[in-house]
Amino acid sequence: MNRYTRSRAQFGAAVFLSAMRREWVKLHPDRECPVKALDAYDEDSRNALVSACLSVMKASKPESDVAYLGFMSEREEMADGAA
């Protein structure tokens, strides 16, 4: 089964935006939340969000482990340099 489908990415985008709204309200309870539900965005914005989520999903594949380890190594080096 292909786990990296557009419909799964749409679900991921909707979940991400829902979580972002909850976090925004926690941080700014007295302000209107600028993060909308996925369906409230125009088609181009929805497509961009879904495409971004699909990229994130694909980055979690085992084939991306080498790139992930490189990313983590760079972050550790930056943190060591800042200390």
Would you kindly provide a written description of the structure presented here, covering whatever features stand out?
This protein is mainly alpha-helical and about 80 residues long. The chain has three helices and no strands. Helix 1 (about 5-25) crosses helix 2 (about 45-60). The model has no long low-confidence stretch (mean pLDDT about 95).
Annotation, overall tally of beta strands? 0
Q: Roughly what fraction of the amino acids lie in strands?
A: under 5%
Low-confidence parts:
none
| Total of helices | 3
Mean pLDDT over the residues: 93
Identify the overall geometry: flat
Give the SSE string: HHH
Q: End-to-end distance, in Å?
A: 45 Å
Kindly name the structural category.
mainly alpha
Share of residues in helices: 55-70%
Rg, nearest Å? 17 Å
User: How would you characterize the largest beta sheet?
Assistant: none
